[in-house]
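pasting for ref
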Amino acid sequence: MTTPIDTDALVIGAGPVGLFQVFQLGLQGLHCQIVDALPHVGGQCAELYGTKPIYDIPGIPYCTGLELIERLQQQMAPFKPTLHLGQQVDSVERLPDQRLQVITDAGQRFLTQTLFIAAGVGAFVPRRMVLGGLADFEGTQVFVQHPSPEHWAGQHLVVAGDGDTALQTCLNACQGPQAAASVTLLHRRDQFTADPGLTAQMRQACTEGRMRFVAGQPTGLRTKAGRLQALELLNPQGETEWLSLEVLQTCLGLSPKLGPLAQWGLAMERKQLVVNTENFGTSEPGIFAVGDINTYPGKKKLILCGFHEATLSAFGAVALLRPEEKTLLQYTTTSTLLHQRLGIA
């Protein structure tokens, strides 16, 4: 296990509310570490609404999900939070000195005074192809995380999926110094949820012979000498066929999972964390929940509401960590102290 990181605050979730939480904590003089299960910031906003329009962010008439995430990263940049991406929190434990010990599935250990759960509807993890025995090859021939050319360079590649990531992966694997020996796109039918422009590019690549598309539902697999050789498919005509491969990259989207969070002993209601509306603290002192993961009377699952919750929870953290101080409301327009913390003094 790695050396523990001691921090004022740990934020779980790097979506828009988690990023704004970092900003609000920074204004209060609290340094943060951020953990997210995805290998990049943005959470659900980036994954599901990356190029889609958002119209209800105050002061921003229009932006895409990715543009909002970029602006929030710029806003929190003065506070230099440390990001721990591609890690999911496994356990939270109260130590005798009242600090919280948080351990991720990567073995990273944090010791924190305050914990902010901004995990949306849970940790987003890749959907896996459900096929008996396939998991045995994960990490060697089967890959479910974000596509990486070194996995398929010079290999016969099958990409499973129908979205933007699947089609873009196929197009990328057709060319360049790390091109695959062959590229096959696999989906149960000849209809796609990907952007129409990407779909047109994929069809053009098939016409030119740079890749091919196979319609079918995986039903089994064939192995030899400990290696995955082929997938058994049920095609649209109801017939069985075999699809040979050396590497399988699944791009089946993401699925939100509460995971270990449900076992942390916090009060929950319908898979959401119950909080008060004074500082959005949970049933455990020092643990706050903001954004879609929490519930309270009148709760609305809006990014705007999450920003409000993050602001009040930051004030709640200061009251907990520095009880001897009188919490003064200061304004970024006029406060010399806030200007110093923002690096503009």
